[in-house]
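Risk register update: the risk that structure generation would not scale has been downgraded. Supporting records follow, first protein first.
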Amino acid sequence: MLIRRENPGDAEAVRAVVAAAFAPYEAARNSGHPGGLPMEVTLLDALRTDSGWLPELSLVAPATAPTMSTASHGGIAGHVVCTRAHVGSVPVLGLGPLSVHPDHQRRGVGSALVHAALGAAEALGAPLVGLVGSPAYYSRFGFEPAEAYGVTAPDPAWGEFFQVRVFERPVPPPRGPFVYAKPFSTIDGG
């Protein structure tokens, strides 16, 4: 599966993929009232204008087979982004949102995107990547509970859902509070 860096012309297609991927979750957050823009779209828009945005870590998976809705999402099957975060004063990365259009889910697109993002993060020398997500899903990529490494979540309620993927380096990984790029703390979905 081809994974490539997002091109400037992909932004609207990526927004469409993120909106479609998170629409069911947004409906659940809004007590079953569909139609609201998922907060992940608002977050992605805000991240694009933040100093934590790293264009080289905004990756897309082009759709390999046309579907009825391919035109509605610009031929993009999925998207992932890593943005600048910190553990104490040490620069690290925050992964997410990870989005796969519903027409392309359960076909390995998300896995390919995560593998590509982690490979790029390691190649760029990041000591670790943090995220909030399902331990059952992300453990396959080497993510472990952040507390096992002395990294504390921005919100203690995240518990086991806040995880880190630590890369082998000659120095131990940083310890302390994890701080995402600013839009993560200002976007509340409302």
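Supporting record for the second protein:
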Amino acid sequence: MIRGIRGATTVSVNRSEEIIDKSVELMNDLIRQNQIQPEQVVSVYFTVTEDLNDGFPAKSLRQIKGWTYVPVMCMREIPVPGSLPKCIRVMVTAETDAAQHHIKHIYHYEAKQLRPDLKS
């Protein structure tokens, strides 16, 4: 089965280093909690809010051993008024035997408010 695994994090400033660091932290947690290997991954999509333009969160994947060949893209989030600022979201599609309700979607920092129903 191919499943979508979601996550999000926030940064305090629009700085490339923080965008990449927080994205690495998010991906490492998502990978660990869902026990994902790069060979299982179909693709990874990152989105950022319009106030983040100093770096690509996709670069975070290249810092994780074994993830060099996983297809990854970055896109801009829809600028909905009142939405969470300085937010990085990710969607990982991966092959897994895990049931839908066993997938662990990961939300860090201010992004926890996006899905309070998924407390981990």
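The helical segments are 16-34. On this basis the risk owner (M.S.) recommends closing the item.
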